[in-house]
Write a structure and sequence with these properties.
- The radius of gyration is 24 Å and the shape is elongated.
- The chain is 13% helix and 55% strand.
- The protein has helices spanning 60-64, 85-96, 103-112, and strands spanning 2-7, 10-21, 24-37, 43-44, 46-57, 68-75, 79-83, 117-121, 125-132, 135-138, 141-145, 148-157, 163-171, 179-181, 190-192, 200-207.
- Helix 2 packs antiparallel against helix 3.
- The two termini are 27 Å apart.
- By secondary structure, the protein is mainly beta.
- It contains three helices and 16 strands.
Length: 208
């Protein structure tokens, strides 16, 4: 049986085979997305995918929760608009220059501002897809530059078509230089090392 429909800006097709057995119905399916776009995960650019799955269940709903398989997503010249490693680095630097009790407030304000959202290249690349218990997940990926690394992963519930994407950013913020603390008159100043902050943050976006 063949099915088709629109989604993620492209054409979904599914070719299925159903066989009734003593413990339910066996399903095998080839699923493909052609001409898709990354708009659903806050990006721009082409994406396509192919996945092979199989499962067994007593009802269509139960069958979908048992589906397992694997595939590949192919991303072209594309980007997603998210918090970049450079924006995270600048936000952390500004937060560190604030009063200690305002560090968290300043960091959150900087990351919430529209200036923190920048186009981050995510293609071209191929990304592995793993399907287990009716949930399709892309393998984590990341891009790196002088400011740090940014990347993410996407999860699709095949029963509800709820789409979750997680975006991870890690900054290469360098440790602050050692500061000099004055001592008693006549004593040499003693350097004190200032430890850098935690170099990462997780931004999660969900779309049903």
């Amino acid at each position: 049986t063949d099915f088709s429909g629109r989604g993620m800006g492209g054409q979904w097709t599914m070719s299925t085979t159903l066989e009734r057995g003593t413990t339910g119905t066996d399903l095998t399916a080839d699923i493909a997305l052609t001409g898709g776009a990354l708009d659903a995960v806050g990006g721009k650019g082409p994406v396509s995918a192919v996945v092979k799955v199989k499962g067994r269940g007593l009802s269509p709903a139960a069958l979908l929760t048992t589906v397992t398989g694997a595939g590949t997503a192919t991303v072209g010249e594309a980007h997603v608009t998210q918090v970049s490693a450079g924006a995270l680095k600048r936000a952390m630097e500004k937060a560190l220059s604030a009063e200690p009790d305002k560090l968290g407030t300043v960091l959150k304000a900087e990351l919430d501002s529209t200036s923190a959202l920048q186009p981050v290249a995510v293609g071209p690349r191929q990304i592995a897809i793993d399907v287990k218990d009716g949930i399709a997940r892309t393998a984590p990926f990341q891009t790196e530059n002088a400011d740090g690394a940014a990347g993410g992963a996407t999860r699709l519930d095949l029963a509800t078509f709820n789409l979750d994407s997680e975006w991870r950013v890690a900054s290469k913020l360098q440790p602050a230089p050692s500061s000099l603390v004055p001592q008693m008159p006549g004593a040499p100043p003693r350097p004190v090392k200032v430890m850098p902050p935690l170099p990462g943050i997780v931004v999660t976006a969900r779309q049903a």
